[in-house]
Amino acid sequence: MKINPKYLPLLIGATLATGIWIGGNLNFPDQNHFFAKNNTKNKLNKLLDFIDNEYVDAVNTDSIVNLTVDTILAKLDPHSVYIPPSEQAEVAESMKGDFVGIGISFYMYKDSVTVIKPIENGPSAKAGILSGDRILYAGKTKLFGRKLPNDSLFTTLKGEVDSEIELLVYRKSAHKKFKIKVKRAVIPIKSVDAALLLNPTTGYIKINRFAETTYQEFLTGLNRLKKQGAKSLVIDLRDNGGGYMEEAIAIADELLPNKQLIVFTKNKKGSIEKTFATEKGSFETGKVFVLLNENSASASEILAGAIQDNDRGIILGRRSFGKGLVQREMDFDDGSAVRLTIARYYTPTGRSIQKPYSKGNENYFKESDSRFATGEMYSKDSIKVIDSLRFKTKKGKIVYGGGGIVPDIFVPLEVEKGTESSAYLLQSGVVGHCIFELLDKNRSDFNGLTLEQLKTKMNASDRYFTAFKKYVSQNGLDLNLDKNKALVKTELTAELARQLLGEDYFYQIILKEDTMVKAVLKQ
């Protein structure tokens, strides 16, 4: 393989100005001087040619180029990254907001592709696929007994819109196998997990990332909540690592009055671009609360910063991650891409919330872990702020730059989720797997139950709590869950509601015990 030279200047950081200079100076006087300055760039080309043509062993030069690109980008900042072709399609699909497939939520249970829940009104649901079904074959491709990775399964089940795939299904509840044809369709990937009322006048919207469809999903949920009587709004950005800043800006525009500054960016040349709210905002007067934690980053921080700096609402939770860099994605012909940092963004008061990254990428991404040791996860007084990065909002509130959004109302981790070990266990996915396996053994016990009946059944005894403790122990975890029995039972009930009834029912249960939400409702 020979590398196309036109990509190498980009990979090693040459600027566009060089190309403009060449094109605008056809009669430049000293060609040798110019090419001497580019010897380093030409050297990389020649080296790859030497390896291709002369090296004694066969070498995949693609892997060498990828390694070179990774090494170069690692010298820049933690968020300038190379995305190989094998990952780029999946990343792009996630941010696009939909894909073409058969519409099921599944996981590998033992050796089989097992349906957790078909998506409501999706292709599989319309074809008759049920929760608990095992998909044995997709066309002629055997899916069971092979321990196939998820990306391989996704590829098998995806296809063109309206294309048909024949599935061989085993239905455990009926002890039978049957073939069924499913016509693939566009399946939405939701970035808004829930939009519901916490009480008659307080709406709640949970955003898991900022994708192409996030603003429209948010607006749909907001309009529905307003019709239901919402006068105040809680926006939950916990564990939201960001995405498209344009989507966060569009949401901020719905909340801020006309001409208020949302965010501004500054590039290496010092060029500043400011973005202001317009007249179109549909929720400019009701109370606004934003929930953050240490995993809220990037676009989440843009939205939270705009609300905080404009004195538009209250930020609750813990200090956010601290990413104030803007990336642009640039594609290569082979399907790969480079995501390059092109600017810094600043909140309306002028603060950068980018935390330092001079000690290397590993330290940078593990900085959140150090907050346990410093006590920051448990006490607002332990948050280190830099007095020289002190800013004031229009109403005189003090805010700080230099590493994340510091909340107005602090909610410590131990209060929010009980002990740390229980918190991380309940967030790990193990609850979902345990509940599925309990359902798989006794699905008929829960068929047709309403939410209230389901909650009554789960709380009538410790049967399911005991089953979960056994499940955790069998999976090699030695945890004392008895201290957090009420919390665990709530999580189990919520997950059961999710798998049987849908996502909104999960949040209806879980939010009643959520300390950050309780703090909002006290305001």
UniProtKB/TrEMBL annotation:
Classification via Pfam families: PDZ_2, Peptidase_S41
Keyword Ligase attached: no
Gene Ontology CC: outer membrane-bounded periplasmic space
GO BP terms: proteolysis; signal transduction
Keywords recorded for this protein, A-Z: Hydrolase, Membrane, Protease, Serine protease, Transmembrane, Transmembrane helix
Gene3D superfamilies recorded: 2-enoyl-CoA Hydratase, Chain A, domain 1, 2.30.42.10, 3.30.750.44
CDD domains found in the cross-reference section: Peptidase_S41_CPP
Record's keyword annotation contains Hydrolase: yes
Transmembrane segments: 7-24
Domain of life: Bacteria
UniProt signal peptide: none
GO-annotated molecular function: endopeptidase activity; serine-type peptidase activity
Domain Tail specific protease: 175-356
Similarity remark: Belongs to the peptidase S41A family.
Family annotation (NCBIfam families): prc (TIGR00225)
Protein name: S41 family peptidase
